[in-house]
Amino acid sequence: MADGAGRIDGPVRGRSVRFRLLAIALLPMLVILPLLLGVAIYRWNTRFDATLISKVNGDLTIAHQYLARILEKTGVQIRGLSLSFRFREVEERETISAVETLLEQSRKEMGLDFLYLMDAGGKIIASSPALEGAPRADWPIITSALSGESPSTGIDIFTNDELATISPALAQRARLDLVPTPNAVPTDRSTETHGMVVHAASRATAPGGGPAALVGGILLNQNLEFIDTINDLVYRAASLPEGSQGTATLFLDDVRISTNVRLFEGRRALGTRVSAAVRSAVMGEGRTWLDSAFVVNDWYISAYEPLVDTYGKRVGMLYVGFLQKPFNDAKLETILIIALAFIAITAASVPIFLRWAQSIFMPLERVTATIGEVESGNLSARTKLPASGDEIGRVAVHLDTLLDQIQERDRQLREWNEELNARVRERTRDLELANLKLEATTKQLIMSEKLAAIGEITAGVAHEINNPIAVMQGNLDVIRSVIGADTEKAKVEFRLVDEQIYRISQIVTKLLQFARPEEYAGYVERHAPGSVVADCLPLVQHLLNKTEISVAREDRASRLVLMNRTELQQVVINLIVNAIHAMPDGGTLTLRSFDADRDDNPGISIDVADTGIGMSTDVLDKVFDPFFTTKRRDGTGLGLSISQTLVKRQRGQITVESQIGSGSTFRVWLPEAS
Length: 674
What we know:
EC 2.7.13.3, Heat Shock Protein 90, Sensor-like_sf, transferase, five-stranded antiparallel beta sheet
């Protein structure tokens, strides 16, 4: 119904052309563009974080190289001293006090905390400073130096007693009170007393010519010069944005023993501990940590790597990192600027889009309403819009013309459809009747031709076999009469020949019974199922001989069945042959007979089971259908159908269970003979 503005009521507003056009106009601006911005910001944020991780990884590489250089430099210095002319001259010509004086001078020049000369027996020849006791002689680097190998340098962990043996001052410097740290691994310790030492040794010659080791070391606990040098190398001036701060730390296990991280203004965070998560990853798993981490009192972009002593054991960590907050603030500021810019652009653009869309709302809604009426069955509905020069006006005029044509075509199609439906129904009935007759005739023809061919071939074979059997039996009797009394000498042999001739005769008789059931059928008799199964095996023995199939039998049936013997044999043989075909690579054929009740009716069951390829669900649904076969050219698809017919005639039933790859089991159930 048209209103004063020339509009008509259309579909529900939520599905109208107006809202669809608005969606098309605003979707890119309000949905797609925000999604693209979101994805871009996410990707930028990910790349930004990756850049920070890459930077802190590079910082860690610089710190690692500096520590490696300290280790290398210490080893080279001690090696150079042990090979120097001055050391050998003092060692060979002067007193032990002169050696100690040289060691004192060299220790200060090299910046070592201790330097001593030890003979192969572990005795201290000379030292600087004077040792308070006898240090350990079984360190790997000392053992390596004494054995003549290249000089070695590494990190070793000294107990407080071992440090006190060298110098009480070193033992005191290594002692740190532990500061309670949130998120750290719980501990009962209150003090860290071990010392981390840069340990180096080189082979030397003792006075008198014996082997000796020149051993030196630097205690890293509270070695602020060492850690500040790393920090200055990694985080030079202007290497970080304003507000950020670079830090470096050396850990013994999870305790900060040398750091420039501040616990509060004026005090370094010595004695604080790393978080449990970082300790587990670095010390526990041996991984390098490259991620954010909470360091003492703030979040830092952090890099931790494990430190390994000369025994190959993880004993500490090297850390570098920088304050994360300035970078987070910069990211947040950037995101806010992008969001505000998007809101401003959207606020300016949306009204323009709405004005443009409004000029096409009215005619499109009219067209949409007309199409809706036509879809509901009102073929006489029209837009009735006046012709205009724009595309929408031309579409409306064409739509009205097309609707006129469609209405006329619809009338004609309905008439033709009724006539065609009547003809189709008539032809369908005729075709169904013809198909039923053809199917029945085809089944009878195939079955008749197959049985006739088998009967003809079997009769010919039986005739050809019976003639030689008769000749053999007659000649055997002639031989007995000619030999006379000497027959007793070959009594066993004659008996065996008689038995085999009789066996051949029985096989031929059973073959004829199977091939021409109509000559033997027509009467039923009681049978023990086990004997029927036994009679079937000779008829399929030639198939079994061609395969690697073993036969297992289990005859437990005590009841008899009432059925024509030939027909029952036909059913069993067909199931056995199918089982043999299902095991082309060999397997086990199991034949069972046992008493079984079904629906409170006593009876017996005959199972024919194989371990062959099995059948799918689709095949199981069709396996008893006439003409259905999986043997392609080798079968007609009537065997199981005929078997089912013969069994049902005796009020029995055939069922099958199968699974792909696990074989199949066919079960023939027959009622007990009354």
